[in-house]
Write a structure and sequence with these properties.
By secondary structure, the chain is an alpha/beta fold. The chain has a single domain, classed as Rossmann fold (3-Layer(aba) Sandwich), CATH 3.40.50.150. Helix content is about 30%, strand content about 25%. The chain has six helices and nine strands, in the order αβββαβαββααβαββ. The strands form two sheets. A seven-stranded mixed sheet has the order 5-4-3-6-7-9-8, with helices on both faces. The protein has a two-stranded antiparallel sheet with strand order 1-2. β4, α3 and β5 form a beta-alpha-beta unit. It is globular and about 50 Å long. The structure holds S-adenosylmethionine. S-adenosylmethionine binds next to α2 and β4. The site of S-adenosylmethionine has 23 residues, from α2 and β4.
Length: about 210
C-alpha cells in the first residue's frame, strides 16, 4: 500500500490553493459533473475532494476512485468511512480504464493520476513478477509506460464537450523528453504547474487539456 507522500501532497496542496467556492482551477464548479482519482491508493485525493464537496453547495460532482489493487480499494473505502462516516465515493477496481463500464465514457471533467512514475529496477527488466507494492512506483522500463498507456485511453473518458483537465505527476528520473513528445503526439496541451525537489529527484505536477488541431 502506498502511503501518501510528497507527490500526493504536491497535488493536494495545488488543488487546495486553486479550488474555491466558485471555481475548480478556473472551471466553474457547477460545470463539473464527475471527477476521477485514478490510482487512488489510500483514497487521499478522492477523500479530499469528497470532503470539499461536503461544505460547498455549488459543488455536486460525483467523485470516482479507481485502483488496480483490491487492497487499495478496500483501504480507501475504510479511510472514507473513518474520515467522513459516509460512503459517497464510487470505487472501481481496474487496470487503468480496462474494467470501466462503457457508461463512463465521455463523462469526466477532471481526471487526476498520481501514477507509478519511476523506472523499473534491473530485476524487473528480467521480467520477474511484480509484487503488489511495485504498482506504487514502477512506471515501466523508462518510468513513463504506465503514464503513456493512461494517456492513450484517457480522452475516451473525458467529457470533451465541456472544460476539462487531467492532472498527473511525473519525475525527472523518467524519460521526460519522450513523455513530452508522446503528450504532444496524442493531442494534448501541456502545462507544468509546479515542481519540487525531494531527495534524489524533481517531481512535477502536470496539467493537460485535449486539444488536437
Ligand atoms: C504513487 S501511488 C499514488 C496513490 C495515491 N493516489 C496518492 O497520491 O497517495 C500509485 C497508485 O496507482 C496504482 N496503480 C498502479 N498501476 C495502476 C494501473 N495500471 N491502474 C490503476 N491503478 C494503478 C497503485 O496501486 C497505487 O495505488
Amino acid at each position: 500500500m502506498y502511503h501518501p507522500s510528497d507527490d500526493s501532497y504536491l497535488l493536494i496542496d495545488y488543488l487546495r490553493r486553486n479550488i474555491d467556492n466558485t471555481f475548480f482551477d478556473g472551471i466553474k464548479l457547477e460545470d463539473i459533473d464527475s471527477i476521477l482519482d485514478m490510482g487512488t491508493g489510500t483514497g487521499i485525493i478522492a477523500i479530499f475532494l469528497q470532503h470539499f464537496k461536503s461544505f460547498n453547495s455549488n459543488f455536486n460532482a460525483r467523485i470516482f476512485a479507481s485502483d488496480i489493487l483490491e487492497e487499495s480499494i478496500k483501504c480507501a473505502k475504510a479511510n472514507e468511512k473513518l474520515n467522513q462516516d459516509s460512503s459517497k465515493i464510487i470505487y472501481l477496481q481496474s487496470d487503468l480504464f480496462l474494467s470501466f463500464p462503457k457508461s463512463l465514457r465521455s463523462t469526466f471533467n477532471i481526471i487526476i493520476f498520481n501514477p507509478p512514475y519511476l523506472p523499473s529496477l534491473p530485476k524487473m527488466k528480467e521480467k520477474l513478477p511484480k509484487k503488489k507494492i511495485d504498482h506504487s512506483w514502477d512506471g515501466g522500463l523508462k518510468g513513463i509506460e504506465i503514464i503513456i498507456d493512461f494517456l492513450k485511453e484517457v480522452k475516451n473518458f473525458l467529457n470533451l464537450n465541456k472544460a476539462h483537465y487531467i492532472y498527473f505527476i511525473s519525475s525527472n528520473r523518467c524519460k521526460l523528453d519522450e513523455l513530452e513528445t508522446q503528450i504532444a503526439n496524442l493531442g494534448f496541451k501541456h502545462e507544468k504547474l509546479e515542481k519540487t525537489h525531494i531527495f534524489f529527484e524533481d517531481i512535477i505536477l502536470n496539467r493537460l487539456q485535449y486539444s488536437p488541431d
